[in-house]
Amino acid sequence: MPSEPPPLSFAAQIAALREEAGRLIRIRPIPAETGLALLKLLHQVELLAARRYELLLARPEQIPSEILRETLSRREAMERRHAAQLTQRLEALGSSPPPAGELIAREAGDTLPVVVSSLLAKRDMVKLYRAAIRFLAPRDKGSAALLRLILEEEEAHIAAMRSLVVPR
Q: Which residues contact 67 (CB under 8 A, 6 or more apart)?
């Protein structure tokens, strides 16, 4: 009996979602549901990021400072807020988010290297948001505006996290 492959890492899951979004954007002619599919992918990205922070926070002994713990907690709340905003947008468009499912493998190791790998994956998230905004802007201005707001917060998040873990 073959065993199931291990779950993908956070970075690999973000890369896979970005690749799927790229595939959706390149389909021609553009299917009517492409915008909804992009919003659903972004919803998955936000839940994935929130789950990543949740798992880090579940190991308080691995978090080297109170400042980092507080920052991770705020970031988890921000990711969950983004997911809720995307849920509201999907519902306003007559759709709903996909079921959450199993989103992330528990990655072993010290918190700081995991946070650094998260920062690298977040760059892919930012690229995904930018691509979705370019695609949606002429088709769904309301969704594009929401994604711009989320993107601003994600970029600020990356800068804040980088300042905590990258020495000056």
A: 164
Lowest pLDDT segment from 18-27, 129-138, 150-159:
18-27
- What is the full DSSP assignment across 102-140? ---PPPPS-HHHHHHHHHHHHHHHHHHHHHHHHHHTTT-
Amino acid symbol at 108: A
pLDDT given for residue 142 in this prediction: 96
Cα 133 to Cα 33, 38, 78, 126, 143: the distances in Å are 15, 10, 20, 11, 8
- Which residue type, as a one-letter code, is found at position 11? A
* Distances in whole angstroms, Cα of residue 139 to Cα of each of 89, 132, 142: 14, 11, 9
The pTM for the full model equals 0.85
